[in-house]
Design goal:
- With 1201 residues, this protein is of the alpha/beta class.
- It folds into 7 domains: 149 residues, Rossmann fold (3-Layer(aba) Sandwich); 177 residues, P-loop containing nucleotide triphosphate hydrolases (Rossmann fold); 193 residues, no CATH class; 60 residues, no CATH class; 76 residues, no CATH class; 70 residues, no CATH class; 145 residues, Ribonuclease Inhibitor (Leucine-rich repeat, LRR (right-handed beta-alpha superhelix)), CATH 3.80.10.
- The protein contains 32 helices and 47 strands.
- The strands form 10 sheets. The protein has a 23-stranded parallel beta sheet, with no helix packed on it. Strands 6-7-8-5-9 form a 5-stranded parallel beta sheet, sandwiched between helices.
- A hairpin with a 7-residue loop joins strand 12 and strand 13.
- The longest helix has 28 residues.
- InterPro entries: DUF4062 (IPR025139), Leu-rich_rpt (IPR001611), LRR_dom_sf (IPR032675), nSTAND1 (IPR049052), P-loop_NTPase (IPR027417), SDS22/Internalin_LRR (IPR050836).
């Protein structure tokens, strides 16, 4: 059990003997319950030298439980540039961190001995009200301390360190928190102690059974407690793609071998008294494969080393090799001599399989839940333990999900009283239990696998994998199902790249995914001590089916796809019986689209039938060609005189009958229709209409913007059909799977913006023709494979270039073309590592640079080279596994105004120290392990912090004198914003998705705050003293689900802008007295029943902008005319609003936007309305005829539909 940590604060020279008295008391009589933490003042004087350690003092106070101040007869020492003494600094830290404080004053001494009476009285006044238990001598001081500490002797202190590991495994140093496996650990330790020489133990078990933690925090930790193993070194590695390198590096880092030890024999000769742990040993198969010859060589070297150890003589000093791997890899790994040899001892870990050992499972899980908390002085309510057991019983791969839940449950608020209750769990999980936590995790898995939805191939694989593990039924009573791993792989490998299927699957069952569990169908070894390759897989919990919205959509799509397949198979059967014909052109297109979205549902019969339908069109085309040759002279005359007219007539007929303009009923009158097409400036073409739109582009004379989505085009020759190609300024091509060439783009002599997003990054596209686009200023290439960047040399006007997730055929990609154009903005997502950085030349014109190497092995040397060639940068963004450690400080130049770093590594903040002129700083996804002070950046005005691991308080960052704006997002450990109350001049504050933030207290220091945004902080329930924010002009409040009382608005009469979104609120009271906010000029209310009538807003005479979104109470617009200053009105999807008759009275309004109108409510459009801009959008299923729109426009020409 933890002890109470006591911090003693005092001056030193005059109170040395008194301090020693208290130290002796704590270290002897009180040692069972209390410990001294630490001896700060003694450290200061132990050499007789003065040392600066202000931060050490504050840290030690923060880490203690009880603060004891002895106040004597001296003022004490001041740190340099400080107006407070060390004692005051420690006292202030104790106040700030809410410590138990006891002040013990010495009351009898010669006042003439006081070194500075004025300062002494000032400090004494500061402590007034805190003094208790005065003393005259050492005996009275001892008694005083006894009285102070006596109540604590009956209580247990709380260690706030989170003892749970989430989805990560326990490490060797986490052994004190590892419970539930005592029997198995003892068995393994007994085996290892009984053997002599080198010992090899394999731990084998299903996914999610806790193998990694068992080996590290169980076996190794307990071995190190035995006398004979205390002097053993240990190394722990996961193989990855470089297993031999990783082991050699770990041995080198531990000082076991030298840099000269390269071969297996050289390394083996240095090994003795050593434990080698290779975690997730199956990675020598999953990470080392035929596509990467270097990784195969790494695997061979590792196995050569391990086999060499196994053949060493027993007289050699003992080496223990522990490996663990999933049971479904046992057969594949048995092909390696090291794994299958007689030297291996196999231990099957299955005691926590509920299906096999329900009684042991329950006892062990009770320990796993409760014991780590008990070690830190916290108890679980028995009711909560039983509830967690009941929830967990249904989950396959239990331990990671349980640890993930427990990790989220542990925070300062839940452990404050030493007991974690069911109510606290309900509050944190949103009353959704473990299932709700799984859902949130599932969405993160999707984002990681698909790179935020960019990798469409892997999204399809993920979707197919998961829906294959679900029994999709017509009555929507879907359930999870158990399937053979081999059958799923056989199905998917027929349609997707085998290595990518494997990658997605391994992520789903791996440590970071845990959405799919896998186990051996018979969970035991056979008589020959071998495993059969017979494994089953299923999703971890049916809650995913019921609650994960994305999966529900996929399941519904699967249900529809299955229905379509049944219809298609029936059609094929009818065709074979002579009752049906081949598919029509339109139906063939639909069948192809269905097949591309659901490749694993198709079969040979379907593929053959679709091909036969397509071939029938080809035959008809060939027959037509023969007829043209046969009747050439007749057809020549026909095409010269009649074909253009027939083409136009045919095209117009297709348009009228198509659903492209879904909200318009197009007229059959050709002249009206032609005028309509001539006026169009923006056109979007997709899979459903590309065949007749692209061939008839000459009928769209005014096009300025063209988008083509998911159309199976091969090139861009259709652009030659444009009547006025010089008018086109914008072209976007998205996921056109058959696209191979850019031929045809050369006609666009005035194009300024071109974006090409591929279907996947492995389909090669020849982009050479792009070099003809001399007027191009912005080019975006996303998710395509191209040859190289040489085509850029011809784009002399290019200013902005974005390259995202692209593959390049050229093995040594030259970057020279980047220096041949006067680029100003460059954004590169480096998807591969074969870029020849040495070819990069001077880019002095560049003032904005974004480098993303999240999916590449490129590191700081690449960044350094770019920064050397871009000396005039004003904006820089770096994303990827980037610590900054190897970054040359001088390359971050003094001209830099804005810096954004997104990383997944421990970040070195010292690289920022020289950026004296930096004004904007964004930090995201960083890992910090020390105080990340930013106080050296004197000119910083805006700070954006996003999802930084290890940042628990803004106090760790420090105060920046010119800071005007702070944005904090996804900081789940952030519990208070106290430091902001010492930040003068802060004008803008945004707090988004900070789940541990419970209250925000405005203590009067944020007097300059003008803009305040609160979004998605689901545990925030109080805004204390917000009236002190006297300069606040703008407030945004969205999705803060626990604030239900808006009376605080009464204190914000100076507000000019207010935005409130009440979606997800459990309950809320009506928003009171908005009409009293007389200064409001902008008001946005979403998902609210307020106002019931616009009469409630009477008095808002300054209101200029009003947006009402999804209000279920509004039925008419009466009262709007009283808002005299209103000039912009938006009404969006108010389902009960049907009476718009008051619009004609809003003469002062310059713009009106109304969304979600139905036909029956549209009569008001025929009346004379205000002359400002009016935008109308009908419900998707409804619309007006073009003739009706013409009638409306005669009365109100300012309306846009």
């Amino acid at each position: 059990m933890p002890k109470w940590k006591v911090y003693i604060s005092s001056t030193f020279i005059d109170l040395r003997e008194y301090r020693q008295t208290l130290k002796n008391l704590i270290e002897n009589q009180l040692k069972d319950k209390f410990e001294l933490h630490p001896k700060i003042m003694e450290r200061m004087y132990d050499t007789g030298d003065f040392q600066l350690f202000t931060e050490d003092c504050e840290k030690a106070v923060k880490e203690s439980d009880i603060y004891v101040l002895i106040f004597g007869k001296r003022v004490g020492s001041y740190p340099p540039d400080e107006k407070r003494t060390y004692t005051e600094i420690e006292f202030d830290a104790a106040i700030r961190h809410n410590k138990k404080i006891f002040c013990l004053p010495l009351v009898e001494f010669d006042k003439n001995e006081v070194d500075n009476i004025e300062e002494y009285n000032r400090i004494k006044e500061k402590f007034r009200g805190k003094f208790s238990h005065p003393f005259k001598n050492e005996t009275e001081l001892e008694n005083a301390l006894f009285k102070c500490l006596f109540p604590f002797s009956f209580l247990n202190p709380i260690n706030k360190k989170n003892p749970y590991k989430g989805l990560k495994s326990f490490g060797v140093n986490d052994g004190t928190y590892f419970f539930g496996r005592k029997k198995e650990i003892n068995q393994c330790v007994k085996i290892l102690r009984a053997k002599s020489g080198n010992i090899f133990l394999s731990i084998i078990g299903d996914s999610g059974i806790g193998k990694s933690s068992f080996v590290k925090a169980g076996i190794i930790y307990n071995l190190k407690q035995q006398d004979e193993f205390k002097k053993y070194n240990y190394v722990v590695i996961t193989p990855g793609k470089k297993p031999f390198f990783n082991l050699r590096y770990s041995l080198l880092d531990a000082g076991i071998i030298s840099s000269n030890d390269i071969t297996s024999d050289e390394i083996i000769n240095k090994l003795h008294n050593l434990i080698i742990c290779i975690d997730q040993f199956e990675e020598i198969i999953t990470q080392c494969n035929d596509k990467d010859k270097a990784s195969l060589r790494e695997r061979e070297q590792l196995l050569e080393l391990l086999t060499g150890i196994s053949k060493m003589s027993k007289s050699h000093s003992s080496i223990i090799v522990l490996i663990n791997f999933r049971s479904d890899f046992a057969t594949a790994l048995a092909n390696f001599e090291f794994v299958s040899g007689n030297h291996q001892i196999k231990f099957l870990l299955n005691s926590l399989d509920y299906k096999l050992h329900p009684e042991n499972w329950e006892n062990s899980l009770k320990e796993i839940i409760a014991e780590p908390a008990r070690v830190n002085g916290v108890k679980f309510h028995e009711e909560l333990i039983l509830s967690l057991l009941n929830d967990t019983k249904e989950i396959d791969g239990t331990l990671p999900i349980l640890q993930f839940t427990l990790q989220m449950l542990w925070n300062d608020e839940t452990i404050e009283d030493g007991i974690i209750s069911t109510q606290e769990f309900v509050k944190i999980s949103g009353n959704r239990g473990i299932t709700g936590i799984i859902q949130e995790h599932a969405e993160n898995v999707y984002r990681n696998v698909t790179r935020n939805g960019k990798n469409k191939k892997k999204e399809l694989i993920l979707k197919s994998l998961l829906v294959n593990l679900i029994e999709v039924t017509s009555n929507k009573k879907d359930v999870k199902r158990t399937v053979d791993k081999s059958s799923v792989f056989d199905s998917l490998n027929n349609h997707y790249d085998q290595s990518e299927v494997k990658q997605v699957f391994e992520y789903l069952v791996g440590e970071e995914g845990r959405l799919v569990s896998i186990w051996k169908s018979s969970a035991s070894l056979n008589e020959d001590d071998e495993f059969e390759d017979d494994f089953s897989i299923e999703i971890v919990h049916e809650a995913l089916i019921r609650r994960w919205e994305r999966l529900k959509v996929w399941i519904d799509e699967r249900r529809n796809a299955l229905k379509y397949r049944d219809r298609l198979l029936n059609h094929i059967e009818g065709y074979e019986n002579g009752d049906e014909k081949l598919l029509s052109l339109k139906k063939t297109r639909r069948a192809n689209k269905w097949r591309s979205s659901n490749p694993d549902l198709s079969n040979e019969d379907i593929n053959e039938f679709i091909s036969k339908s397509q071939n029938s069109f080809m035959s008809k085309a060939k027959w037509s060609l023969s007829m043209i040759i046969l009747f050439g002279s007749f057809l020549f005359a026909y095409f010269i005189w009649f074909q253009p007219y027939n083409k136009k007539k045919s095209f117009f007929k297709q348009l009228v009958n198509a659903d492209y303009f879904f909200s318009l009923e197009l007229p059959k009158d050709e002249e009206i229709l032609q005028n309509f097409l001539d006026s169009l400036q923006n056109l979007t073409v997709d899979f459903n209409n590309y065949d007749y739109i692209l061939d008839n582009l000459e009928f769209f004379k005014g096009l300025k913007r063209l988008e083509i989505n998911e159309a199976p085009i091969k090139d861009l020759e259709f652009l030659k059909n444009l009547k006025n190609p010089h008018r086109l300024k914008f072209l976007r091509i998205y996921e056109c799977s058959g696209l191979k060439k850019m031929k045809g783009v050369e006609v666009l002599d005035s194009i300024q913006f071109f974006e090409l997003e591929g279907y996947d990054d492995e389909t090669f596209i020849d982009v050479e023709n792009l070099n003809s686009l001399k007027s191009l200023t912005t080019l975006i290439l996303d998710f395509v494979e191209i040859e190289d960047l040489d085509f850029l040399s011809g784009l002399s006007g290019l200013k902005t270039l974005i390259i995202s997730s692209c593959n390049f055929k050229n093995e040594q990609l030259s970057l020279k073309p980047l220096g041949n154009i006067e680029l100003q903005n460059l954004d590169i997502d480096i998807y591969d590592s074969n870029w020849n950085i040495q070819t990069l030349e001077d880019m002095t014109y560049m003032d904005s640079l974004s480098l993303d190497f999240s999916y590449s092995e490129i590191k700081e040397n690449f960044v350094n080279k770019f920064l050397e060639q871009t000396p005039n940068l004003k904006y820089l963004k770096i994303s990827g596994d980037f610590s900054g450690k190897g970054l040359l400080k001088g390359n971050l130049n003094e001209k830099l105004k804005e810096l954004d770093i997104n990383s997944n590594e421990i970040f070195e903040f010292e690289i920022l120290e020289d950026l004296k002129n930096l004004e904007v700083l964004g930090l995201s996804e960083l890992i910090i392990n020390e105080k990340p002070t930013l106080t050296e950046i004197k000119n910083l005005e805006k700070l954006d912090l996003r999802n930084i691991d290890g940042l628990n308080s803004l106090n760790e960052i420090g105060v920046m004198p010119k800071l005007k704006s702070i944005s904090i997002t996804n900081q789940n450990n952030l519990r208070n914003l106290d430091i902001l109350n010492t930040t003068d001049g802060l004008e803008e504050l945004s707090i988004t998705y900070c789940d541990s933030l419970v209250d925000i207290n405005f203590k009067g220091m944020l007097s300059d705050l003008k803009v305040f945004r609160l979004n998605g902080n689901r545990r925030l329930h109080e805004l204390g003293n917000i009236s002190n924010a006297g300069s606040l002009e703008s407030l945004e409040f969205e999705l803060n689900s626990e604030i239900s009382d808006f009376n605080f608005l009464n204190d914000l009469r100076q507000l000019k802008s207010l935005k409130i979104n009440l979606r997800n609120l459990i309950s809320y009271n009506p928003i009171p007295n908005i009409h009293k906010l007389r200064s409001l000029d902008s008001l946005e209310l979403r998902n609210s029943k307020y106002p019931i009538s616009f009469n409630e807003l009477e008095g808002l005479n300054s209101l200029e902008y009003l947006n009402i979104y999804r209000n279920t109470s509004l039925i008419d617009l009466h009262g709007l005319e009283k808002l005299e200053s209103l000039n912009n009105l938006t009404l969006r999807n108010c389902p009960n609003l049907s009476n718009y008759q008051n619009l004609e009275n809003l003469d002062q309004v310059k713009e009106i936007n109304i969304f979600g109108i139905s036909n029956k409510d549209s009569n008001f459009l025929y009346k004379k309305l205000p002359q400002g801009k009016i935008f109308i959008r009908f419900k998707e299923s409804e619309g007006l005829s073009l003739s009706s729109i013409d009638s409306i426009l005669e009365v109100n020409p300012n309306i846009k539909f």
